[in-house]
Fold each of these.
Amino acid sequence: MSGRPTPAFASERLTVRLGGRTVLHELDLTARRGELLALTGPNGSGKTTLLRSALGLVTPTRGEVRLLGEATRSLAIRERARRVAWMPQEEAAFENVPLFDYVLFGRYAHLPPFSGEGPADRAAAEAALREVGLWEQRYRGILEVSGGERQRVLLARAVAQDTPILLLDEPTAHLDIGHQLDLLERVRRFCRERDRCAIAALHDLNLAARYADRVAVLSRGRLVADGPPGEVLSEALLREVWGVVAELRRDPVSGLPYLLPRLPDRSAGAPAPRRTPPIHVVGGGGAAAPVLRALVEDGQRVTTGALPLFDTDLEVAEELGLPSASEVPFAPLGPQARQEHRALLDEAGTIVVAPFAVGPSNLANLEDLLGRAATVPVYLIETTPIATRDFTGGRATALRDRLVAEGARSVPDLPALRAALARRGDADR
Amino acid sequence: MGDASATEGSSRTDPRHRLGRRARWAILLVAGAGLLAGSAFVGPVAIPPGTVAGILLHEVSGGALAPHPCGSLPLASPACQGNIEIVWDVRLPALLLAVIAGAALGVSGATLQGVFRNPLADPYLLGLSSGAALGVAALFILRVGVAEANLVLPLLAFVGALGTGAIVLAAARRASRSVETLLLTGVAISNFLSAVMLVLVLANPIGSLQVTFWLLGGLGGATWARDGIAFGGALVAGGVLSLYGRELNLLQLGPDVAQSLGLPAARVRSRLLLLASLATAMAVAFTGVIGFVGLVSPHIVRRVLGGDYRVVLPASAFVGGVFLLVANDLALIALPTSELPVGIVTAFAGAPFFLALLYRRRRAAGEAAA
């Protein structure tokens, strides 16, 4: 190690256990300045946990992450924020803060206690907003801008934070293809021109191959590959890590590899991944979102429905790429949505009912569950009792009681559900 | 919250909207002082307006202006002295206490809403006020003399509010971001504390009359000395809190993001809760439990001025003070002869407001789900 410069980012034998599960296992990974490292791997492989460990938001069980040579845990929170900036996958905004002020939040770690932002901070925020092309819109509120603009604002805030290390968690998750390319292009340029170290968790392997200087592949908390995209990405790796059959081609212009996934061809006897029946989650209004995320994180196949378009749960399902049944908003579930929903229910190996508010228009979601507890396990997550979420004058409560009488199990919260599913999973094996 | 503030929110940085901020504050403060003086004309004892004005001028100027405040009555006459006592030693302390307590509750409510990222948080609904009142009730068991009571009351109230705040914070950490869970925890704690208070009342019948006063909430106990103590404590709490506007803004992004930006979120939240407890205690110690001021005031501010906590904190103090002052005036105008506790008036105004907020949220959630 001596003689070589200290890497900007280094995880050293990093082990993280969360809720009894080893999420990261003895992970050694470094990144240097001027480099864009793409962190990739299937859902639940530990990408986000690695980033959160670096930020000090997750406490490692063993090992640590070093930022410019010093362990995150030994740094004061303010000093951490001067070394590493974070662009979270999503961020709840409640107040309609003007974009300029939103970017100015990034300067907090540079402010002396109890004093306001000075000219230098304003200049940094201005430069960052110009960099993402939003300076002209600086007085608009964060709640008024599009998803793509919002991601750029988050990037600008991280840039204004002026740290040597930049962590990006699925920065392109909510963006269309044009904005994905634009954002990653900006990040890469930022790394090179300003000599910063950026680590981006990316689902999309083609984006990773196109923009990253290096690709690190995580699988079940272990580093399984690390190197330039051309060396790392291979058909074998895809099959092994993702269970996907794809063809690796080379872009004739850039020489970079890109992947062309093939549809599963059952007759060819391709080694398809082990297919357990999916878990179907019934929800609405955001009640199912944490459940969907958690189950996907646990590596489960998940479906959801029936949800109105623009429903938070549906958006999350789409973001996670889950099959779902949907209906136009503010209307009772129509025959087609119900049919789609029933088809998903028929296919499900387990049914989970999130604590959603039941109104006349989505009561059918509960009705369609009747009689199913006899064949598949049905879990009711009852963080809040049904009576408080029943806007149908007691019909939802009566349905819920019937489901329980039929054998549906009530669990108090999401961790309890995960525990119940894990117990059953172990029993199956 | 931020829906109506599309253009107002920009006032933070847009220089076009920035001019005259001090002027606006000055106008508001003058209007508030006028309202305060005007409120001195209202009360169960009918005193001619000219006499009230004369007494105010006389006392404020130390006798230099309006040497004969009671008109034809000589200054030394018992009738005139009685009027002076009513206006200057009964009405004015009560009005000032209304302003101080209202401001303390307003700033406390704004802080709690920010700390818990919950628009329905309020020192009354979260049980902080009940905790403070229980602290006060303990006084009647300890039987501290009246001389020390002025200092011991706020101290006990602070201990009670802080203890409750710690429980609520622990509950909020477990329940993460559920609005309802936090409120229900507060309601449960509140009810529990009220039950403990009733036990104290039953165990000590002599103190029960006083305890009832603290349960209902009113301004009848105001004196200049108590005003001074409440003002001092509220000023400390409010002054320090108003330095935390930027931190509260960051906390709205969630504790993880706030920490990634350099804010020690857990520590700052505890500190803010401590200060909100102090502000609440200063109000409750001398007025008893007055509900909904802390809920309503920040919402009015956000509607008009946007959600920047650097503005919301001081402005909520102002609105809270005015709110309680007006509530007191209304109580006196509605039932001039029976001293209607001001806490009942704020409940009449605040409870429907709270329900409207709650149901608007629920309806939005229900529609999204349906």
Amino acid sequence: MAGPVIVVGAGPAGIRAAERLVEAGLRPVLIEESARDGGQIYRRQPEGFTRPHEALYGSEAAKARALHAAAEALRPRVDWRPETLVWAARDNALLVNAAGRSESLPYAALILATGATDRVMPLPGWTLPGVTTLGGAQIALKAQACTIGARPVFLGTGPLLYLVAWQYLKAGAAVQAVLDTSPFMKRVEALPWMLARPGLVVRGWTYTRDLQKAGVRIATGIMPVAIEGDDRAAAVRWRDATGQDHRTECDAVGIGYGLRSETQLADLARCAFAFDAGARQWLPVADEDGRAGVPGVYLAGDGAQVRGADAAELAGRLAACAALRDLGTAVDEIEMVTLRRRLAPMTRFRRGLERAFPWPANLAAALPDEALVCRCEAITAGTLRRAGGEYGAPEVNRAKAFSRTGMGRCQGRMCGLAAAEVLAAARGEPIEAVGRLRGAAPVKPLPVATEAAP
Amino acid sequence: MTRADVIIVGGGLMGAATALFLRQRGVSVILLERDLVGSHASGTNFGNVRRQGRFLPQLPLANRSREIWGRLPEVIGEDAEFLPSGHLRVAFSDAAIGKLEAYARDARPYGLELELITGNALRARFPFLSPEARMASYSPLDGHANPRLAAPAFARAARRAGAEVQERTEVLSIAKSAEDFLVETPAGTFRAPILQVSSGAWGGRMAEAFGEPVPITPRGPQMGVTEPVPYRIAPVLGVASDVTEEGVYLRQVERGNIVFGGGLRSEASLDTKRARLDPVNTLRQLPYLARLLPAVRALSVIRTWSGVEGYMRDDIPVMGPSAKVPGLFYAFGFCGHGFQLGPGVGATMAELIATGSPGVPIDPFLISRFAASEGDPR
């Protein structure tokens, strides 16, 4: 295999991976889809914006500053390619598109640090203007200093639900409610795992306390019913844990149920996948150091498993160590053992989060037939259920072929996990029995006007 | 052990349609499909319901098929999104113009009327075409359909008509007793005095097992689709060219997306059952698509795919009775142009099996054509 080591994604995992490769004397290619490094969590504001790190990243300011400094120090030592989309993979090469031009980049090793996106469960009204994901709501604040609304409701589950609500509160928004599908008792039950990182548990409590102090309604164990509004979101209807119905008026809704790993590139690079019961997602298989089943391919960060930014920094460095060692460069075993040891509690914490804030799979079965599941193609739950029932589609790719679910611009990245739940529930089968959507190029839309580099 | 009059191995469009038409003739049928009905070439092809441009002796079969496409709701209870919206073959060179003229002349005796359009008339009727287009051959009654829906719809209709359709049932071995074929699968042994092999690219292996090797190669078509835009382009468009790379084609579905394919093909594997699209081929297609339909340059490709197709050395399929084994029939190796033929192949094979006569001429497709050649046919 010829060529450099390529790192895809300049978030916490990708930056630390590239940094370790540079320490070993290599000049890796570092590819980033957006204009700047930092990833989602440490996303940078546009050039010319001057808010300080403390304002943007709060308690994480020191880590953000350190990561941004590391990225800047790397700039002259790597082949830095921002605003570059990896749209396909073939035979130890990536096809990358930048400024309307596609070129083939061969690699000796490939480290995928592709991150994660919000995990969404549809509900009636979720495609109304004014509804955005929690991550989207946070990026609006972080990158643009904008809010999604003056009176938002935040709906879903997971630590991001409370963090975003808290950040909006601090930014001056009149948060109308925080509606969490997870019962509070789940958090108590998950404590033995969560206490692997006690500092994070405490921080979560402070967000909740600040929200409560400010008079924000926080309800747990709720069931979302619908988002209402004529031409944009105006209210959320929900049922509380005792079965009582509520209607909370608002001018925007942020929804999200944790994160889902971005795995298409791993799929296109021919990595094997296995069902992860905790994440309730098919994930690319990798060993402890990030080696995928395919020689020369390594996975790090939330794209491999959602363990958060701190773990991503360690996993990125560890994957780089593994790649270096496989390429014949000596790596001190102590370094790798130390990284693995530091990652262990983060893996345990991740399992705690999955217990505390479970993906509400049951909502898929309860979704009304007329609710949209696939928003790109405007496919309803009823159409999808018919593909699985009357037309007998036993798995998601077949259901896609019959119903178009997951066939649109996002290629099922947004709706795929929920669609699988709807299909499995309709067929009365366990979620893993309906499989996963096979990845296909382009990872994101490829303009027809794209020129092929010679 | 389950017994029927006919066992069909392979639930693509050919097998599913044959099963339905055999049932309509009162023949009992078991259809065995290794994966899901229509999940390989039948489900991943472009969806062309095109007669023009075909090997001329294939036109009677294509005409028979076109007639069935036209009454799909009556035949299978749904239309598989068949749109008889016309087909245009577009010429950009003198050589291609000459070929279009010759083909239009030669196709007429087969009942295929083609209209040759040039100059201002071409631009007036099809304003979306490239100004570089010199001539187009218009086949008004051709069109397109949804390949993801067609074969499964035929299989459901066959099942409603009484056929036993077994999906996810791989054939492990086939033996021939004095009176029956014995087909062993993980779901048990099936037997019938008549067997049809319609297993697409995998058909060659089965024919070889019966002592009739054929020169067949698996390849993958390079398909793609754009984001949706308002529905404006009724006919299917294809470039008439002898240069493989230039030979792209496209169609707009009513939903608005533009489906495209053509040009080079990628490798396909009979063992992994997958054909991996080569994204470099997609990049090569783009300028030719834009030459055919300049407005497509404003769109983005949202998905690509491929599938395992079986290509014969002479680019025409294997269809008809075995030359060696009584009771054995073939319908496979449709060389990437079988989708339009599917319903007609089903009707023809059913007629051949039930009556001994195919109803339309199929002599050019007989497997015996390879037995005559010297040495190893591959």
